[in-house]
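Appendix B. Chain record.
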Amino acid sequence: MLVNGISVTVTGLEDMSKKEIIGYIQMLQQENNGDLAKLSISPAEDGEINLDYELQPAKFERIRRITGYLVGTIDRWNNAKKAEEHDRVKHAVIN
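Structure tokens predicted for this chain:
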């Protein structure tokens, strides 16, 4: 099921309310800066609750190396550096 945009699976706990699920989601989002993607809730052997979750993939910015400079964006480069980046041979990424 989808709760607050998070894919949630509840196994072995038929009496769990949506309010409880939202509580677990809020707790995990608070601990993980809101990056929760999936949540699986199941009973533990000791009477507790197992919370297995996945976080959203980390976002990263592309970094370029041009003549010794490591940069994320080229918006502050002069025309010579922009031309150097434009003339570079681009290599494909192979999976």
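Further analysis of this model is presented in Appendix C.
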